[in-house]
Amino acid sequence: MTTKNIFFRLLVIFFLCLAACSKTPDINNETMLDGDQIFDPSLYNPAKYLVSVGIPNPGAVQKNTPVIIAVHGYSATTFEWEEFRTYCNAKANVLISQVLLGGHGLTYEDFKSSTWENWQEPIMNEYNALLAKGYTNINFAGSSTACPLVMDLIKKGIIGDNGMKHIFMVDPIVIPSDKLLTLIGLVGPMLGYLESTMTVAEEGRYYHFRPQETLKQLLNLTEKTRKDLQEGYNVPSGIRLKVYKSIKDPTADAVSAVLIYKGLKHSDGSNIDVEMIESDLHVVTRLDGRDNITQHDRDNQAHVFDDMYRILIQ
After folding, report:
1. What's the domain count of the chain?
2. What is the pLDDT of residue 18?
3. Is residue 169 part of a domain?
4. For residue range 166-176, what is the model confidence (pLDDT) as tens digits?
């Protein structure tokens, strides 16, 4: 980006700051996830969403059945993996835990006060609960921000070779497509929050307003992930990792996949598998709620789901 373009975008931000009359968003409690209504069903029916709760005393067959811990991205909810749950339920021989990130699914103020470490906690809680119950075939499927959260757990050695078999990453974010995120430390305090656009079907499933505090947390997480990848590290023994990355992703720059490919190796030194997807969507596996979905988008989703399933049962 040229100096002229950077200056122009800074001017736009400045005028947006001047136009913002309040740092407190106008929240509709009836329709917005940001309000005081509980929209995410995993909060009031955890047994349906978490295998550790839904099957408290697994038998021998269940303990050996593949369990996928499916985790959504920043400002989203378990809705992001609902289509994959439908897919898995139809297969009958795969279990799925849809994990809600910490600080998500609650009020704007709860979200605002959360850190990326808070977001990460429920992932480890479900992983540890499954291990404690004797599950031997645990897998992870993450979209967007869920991916650097799990990469951090790998880097720290918290996720090991005790039960984890496969890790699938869908449109992981390491480098944001919108470079304005890197300026959030400068303009965030002036803005207070950013408002996101969404369809009617997405209301109540994604935060309408994104507090600048959480955007700073997202920036901190992605910067840490980038530095870790530059140093390089390995996935624990026995775990195989695959990345599915949209080429024209408006949220996570395609170079994110390149950094992961260069910085992460399997325990034997072999390269991880990266598949670039011809798509202009962020999180190619989530289609419900979007406008203008094409057959090509549906084919991409079916391909990723089928490929993940093939890898799980081979």
Report:
1. 1
2. 45
3. yes
4. 999 999 999 99
